[in-house]
Write a structure and sequence with these properties.
14 helices; Dihydrodipicolinate Reductase, domain 2; Rossmann fold; binds 6-O-phosphono-beta-D-glucopyranose; alpha/beta
């Protein structure tokens, strides 16, 4: 299975993802000399156009979405591009597509970034045109279904033509540098792993906050909601990386075996362990923004915010809650993981008195910033300088590592650069395996069933706030404060 593809076929080549992420990522890889000399990229979509028009289209996207300092190689990159129009619902066009792709010298990688309703006909078309042979890999972009049943239907359709070891399911969070750094932090250092368990960790928080609202994705988002759009995939992947046992190797089987065990150990969420919200008009970074219902033009039961108290039922994590929250129109864009350690078992320092003298102890906390800042902060207790006539005083001080400073000179890459390169070269480690996706859906479906049974509707929150007050209460009930 190990070949470096010399053809890349992009379905949905005129879509938003292609313009914002895929074409810019490929161009950036090309500029850095990371694509094989002979790699050609064939775009396909419904619109009629020839190669030259597609190259113009791609140039427009690159000039808009590639950082200026990475635009120098655009001309030579465009020479790799070709285009074939295709209506994926009509089998007739696939023969022309196959002719355009030609016979790869080593192999073909296909990237499907289209509506899931087109997956099945596309796969049938590819099969009929001989584009599903042993030297073809299939990469799928989300959404892969809306629940376990629809996800299984998609997976079955793909499995009819491609074995699992040639299917690459994208979760673009796995392409993010700091997400992979979680593995380095945990498994390349001796000091964290002995403490990484219920005996020493009080709780974990995972926040994925966005300032954006609907962004024109009205129909898609209103059918999905925050739970399916963000928790089912990205947040559960982050949780799995935090909670998994050390894999024996950094390879696709070992890493994914460990992740899936965590996902299967997730306890079904109980009543009162979730809060949902929907934003109303407010202000983000000083700018007035409309409410979700106004953007949508009607009332809707879809959640734009969700907070969950999750539990991983295994020896390592017994009794350690994982607080997850994500939402649109929150005060700032931030993705971070907080590991809150327990307090020391016994303090040797004098307790604070009424005058504030003495030692206030705060348990250690590790904050892993994923975006926009890529940093790792470990808060430690330190002695406040002084002669301590009234007893020693302590203060929490941060041990701060800003990764861009630690690694100056390295390029900050788009998550898709890594994933596209792995796809072309055939490394599945950072792609999601079928059993993971299904375990994710199983847990998420049970939450939705609970909401339905309890007739739970989203509480409103003002755009620019941290979600409904009930989300704060969800953590505070346990004496936990969300990290902000
Ligand atoms: C996508 C969701 O998967 O991830 C979007 O569909 C969301 O709603 C996006 O905005 C967030 O990705 P990132 O990389 O900007 O955090």
């Amino acid at each position: 299975m190990s070949f470096t593809a010399d053809r890349l076929l992009l379905f949905g080549a005129t879509g938003d993802l292609a313009q914002r992420m895929l074409l810019p990522s490929l161009a950036a890889l090309d500029a850095d000399g990371l694509l094989a000399e002979d790699l050609t990229i064939i775009g396909t979509a419904r619109s009629e156009m020839d190669d030259a028009a597609f190259r113009d289209f791609a140039r427009g996207a690159l000039e808009k979405f590639l950082p200026a300092e990475r635009q120098s190689g655009i001309d030579s990159f465009l020479e790799r591009l070709f285009y074939q129009a295709l209506d994926a619902t009509a089998m007739a066009g696939f023969a022309d597509l196959a002719a355009k792709v030609g016979t790869p010298a080593r192999g073909l990688a296909i990237f499907l970034s289209t509506a899931p309703s087109l997956f099945e006909p596309t796969i049938r078309g590819l099969q009929s045109a001989g584009l599903a042979g042993d030297n073809v890999r299939m990469c799928l972009e989300k959404p892969l279904g809306t629940d376990l049943a629809s996800s299984c239907a998609i997976n079955d359709a793909v499995a009819a033509a491609f074995p699992e070891n040639r299917i690459f399911r994208i979760d673009h969070y796995l392409g993010k540098e700091t997400v992979q750094n979680l593995l380095a932090l945990r498994f390349a250092n001796i000091m964290f792993e002995p403490l990484w368990n219920a005996a020493h960790i009080d709780h974990v928080q995972i926040t994925v906050a966005e300032t954006v609202g609907l962004e024109g994705r009205v129909a898609f988002y209103d059918d999905a909601g925050a739970l399916r759009d963000m928790v089912q995939n990205h947040m559960l992947q982050l949780l799995a990386l935090v909670a998994m046992e050390p894999p024996a190797h950094f390879d696709a089987t070992a890493v994914r075996d460990e992740k899936v065990k965590v996902l299967r150990a997730l306890r079904p969420v109980a009543s009162g362990e979730t809060v949902t919200g929907q934003y109303r008009a407010g202000a983000i970074l000083g700018e007035a923004v409309p409410g979700y219902d106004e953007e949508l033009g009607k009332a809707s039961p879809t959640e734009t915010f969700v907070a969950i108290k999750a539990h991983v039922d295994n020896w390592r994590w017994k009794g350690v809650p994982f607080y997850l929250r994500t939402g649109k129109r929150l005060p700032k864009r931030v993705t971070e993981i907080i590991i809150q350690f327990r307090a020391v078992p016994h303090s040797i320092f004098a307790q604070p008195d009424s005058k504030g003298n003495g030692a206030v102890m705060q348990p250690n906390r590790l904050v892993i910033g994923i975006q926009p800042e890529e940093n790792i902060t470990l808060s430690l207790m330190a002695k406040v300088p002084g002669l301590d006539r009234e007893g020693i005083r302590l203060r929490q001080v941060p041990l701060d590592i800003a990764l861009p400073d630690a690694f100056t000179g390295t390029v900050r890459r788009i998550a898709y650069e890594r994933l596209l390169l792995d796809l072309v070269e055939g490394d599945q480690t950072l792609f999601v395996r079928r059993d993971e996706v299904e375990a994710q859906w199983e847990w998420v479906d049970a939450i939705r069933a609970l909401w339905e049974a309890e007739n739970l509707t989203p509480k409103t929150y003002t755009a620019g706030s941290w979600g409904p007050s009930a989300a704060i209460a969800l953590a505070e009930r346990d004496g936990v404060t969300w990290h902000e």
